[in-house]
Amino acid sequence: MDLDTSTDFGAMVARRLQEERIGWLTTVDPAGAPQPTPIWFHWDGETILIFSEPKVAKVRNIRANPKVALSFNSNEYGGAVVVFTGRARIADTPPSEARQAAFLTKYAEGIRSLNMTPEEMQAKYSAVILVTPEKVRGWT
User: What's the CATH number of domain 8-94+127-139, 3.30.1130.10, 3.40.50.800, 2.30.40.10, 2.30.110.10?
Assistant: First the structure.
């Protein structure tokens, strides 16, 4: 996905990929129904990293159908809309230590609010989902 950060929209998308704390990952269940789920994520410029409990519907859905959408909440007026479509996969190996550290730093407060340590969080949310965005749409 090429993101033109010289446009207002592209600049907003780039900023939100770095600053947003919550995204909405939409997978497709076996009956073809969309299943949106709030997620924590990390963007590295190529893929969106999501950690998940391994035995939940979104993981099963991705294994059966890798087509996903990921979006952010709009602003209070219905603007600042960002929707990515692409493909997800369940990684066989953990992300690099640097990427894990970046994720854990971003969500340190959230992890504490769950009364978990980073190690407990990584043990519970051991499935690694990588989303490769193919298209982005929305408006400022």
Answer: 2.30.110.10
